[in-house]
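Here is one chain, start to finish.
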Amino acid sequence: MKRVLIYSHDTFGLGNIRRMLEVARHLVQSSPEVSVLVVTGSPMLHAFRIPPRVDYVKLPCLSRNVEGRYGARYLDMSLDATVRLRANIIRSTIADFAPDLILVDKKPFGVEDELAGALSELPVGDARPKLVLLLRDILDSPEATMRVWRKNGCFEAIQAYYDEVLVVGSPEVFDLRREYQFPPFAAAKVNFCGYIAREPGRRSRAEARKDLGVASNLPLVVVTAGGGEDGHALLSNYLEGLRQLPEAQRPRSHIVCGPEMGDAPRAALHRAAAALPQVSLQDFSDDMMSVMAAGDVVVAMGGYNTVCELLTLNKRAVIVPRCKPGLEQTIRAERMAKAGLLRMVHPDQLSPGTLMDTVQAELATALGPATPARLKSMDGLAHCTAAIFEQIGLRMPKPTRAPAPAPTRAKLVAHAYKHVPAYHHEVTLSRGLQWNQPSFNASAQ
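Its structure:
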């Protein structure tokens, strides 16, 4: 039996843990020889169905505010003490579980460097587990990402520890090697896997609409704020826009608040929805694919998982992305809108009237004869699993889409040096590591 440990640092929303649970599910479904242990601080992990041969270790929760600052979420402890506690749990979990591979979500050294100690203590030689970093398509703006990655030694961490970097995205949408100026040694480890298509919901479209009390011929708008922690503005603007319409023009609407919305904003939304007979509302669904499939148009924020669900369903959508603490959602929505895959309302232009005008235009398009554009690279799970299995010596059926041919070393070096400022030949890494960069002549390779 091969053991995979997944580290998901979750501090804000549900996106990371949902994505990593999908990866865990696909790993164990693809081979009976794999078991997965998820290490996470997500306070909502228990709300999701955990498949067989997957278990988890729960870390004390951290919170992150809209300015990006971390703190202890529930415990009466300082940030330093909480991170130290989490780091000790991570170290002992890795030592006792003895994984064949560690899959790290997004941050090479973890939140507040909590993985650094565990990585430095990994055994050497054949006993050393493989290390793979998983990145979503877009992290943040290039300026913010490069500043943070250089400050925290993330590129050097990839050089020193990681065997591969998997990206669940497409370079046609966002090539992070170029956008974030990956140095050659890091760019050479990147493997674009494609976006993660989601499993079908547990109910058919007809069954989901029946559960919501929506007739088969009645247009339905589904509005969701994902985890909901910062989704009140979107949902309240939608409800106000609906209220301002003549009653005969109000589309039947179903709203999902999200489990992490605060009590006061949630109560306000319940009161506003109760005054509109065209609206139904629920706090949380663990079957969002069925709920979204029931709608003709989906109004949502621009998180990775939500966008992947919409792309999987080929659903007409209006996206109002988050723009704090990072620009990840905004960049994703802009790129997808440019490709004709969805419609975007910038949060700076969000108002009841603007949102409702956009929804009505999209609803008219959804009910018309036009066919939405499709994104082809939606087999991210298969490619992630294939890459992980290759690292630990397992086989699985080949993905339906062959990965793009790997660029030659000469092309990688030439491409990277075209966009990356020159590095000194000797870089002193944080945590006492060193990397000696050879002198490359890109044109001569």
